[in-house]
Amino acid sequence: MTSKFLKMGLAATMACTMVACSSQPAATEEGSEEAVTITIGVSPDYAPYESKDTDGNIVGFDPDMVAWFEEYLTEEEGKTYNLEFKEMSFDNIITQLQGDQIDLGVSGFTYSEERAVEWSDPYIKTAQVAVVPEGSSITSIDDLKGKHLAAQTGATGEIAANEVEDATVSSVQNVQDIFTGLSANQYDAAIVDLGVGKQYVESGSFTMVDGTLLDEENYIVAKEGNTEMIDLINKCIAAFTESEDYLTLCDQYDLLPLEK
Ligand code: ARG
What we know:
The protein is of the alpha/beta class. The chain is built from eight helices and twelve strands. The protein has helices at 3-21, 61-77, 93-98, 156-162, 175-183, 194-202, 227-242, 244-253; strands at 33-42, 51-52, 58-59, 79-87, 104-110, 117-119, 124-133, 148-152, 168-172, 189-193, 206-208, 214-223. The strands form two sheets. Strands 1, 4, 5, 6, 7, 8, 9, 10, 11 and 12 form a ten-stranded mixed β-sheet that branches. Strands 2-3 form a two-stranded antiparallel ribbon. Arginine binds at residues 43, 45-46, 49-50, 90, 107-110, 152, 155-157, 175, 193.
């Protein structure tokens, strides 16, 4: 782990403290111009991308990446950047972007042409996969035909589920509730991103079906037309995905790095 990464951890802790306990403008670093605040919509129901720890902090790959960006921008641009999360349900993030309530959405987003947003460059390789209760007779994507599938409301998993022949699709707002329902056999399978599926499989009571419904990548989103914000974020993504910290974090959270 490089020292930049360790320093970043400290910056992240400080940023969170500021969000938690004051609405005053953030103090600027010595010699720098005024601070820039970027507000980010996040739905922390999607470990290892984002979840909440027992103290209520938002943790995971996405928050660590955002903390890296904050450190990087502050160094590169010569002024203090505060990248702050605002928690909301996943299906609300794009609405909030369009209403200028937030500047970015960072929440394990995958591409969908139905979303009228500005897309960044990709940052993680992923897929939509099916997760079933252990011992299920469903072992391949083909077996999903005619079954009861659950996916997150407004997610690409929901679109993929709706394309499965004769399937019944339940849209659920919170991903954690999908897995509670799956354990109780309310659904036959859940459609989620690969990294998320893997975590539930590791928890012991689920299996991942062979094959994928969609092969894709994760992106950051901004309001449609806000190319200035996306250019700034693409600069961060380029530096981040070339850094050693990127591979360290992919490994730590068991997510797939982009193929170079
Ligand atoms: N990748 C999927 C999509 O963009 C699901 C993302 C869900 N993210 C979350 N934090 N719940 O639609």
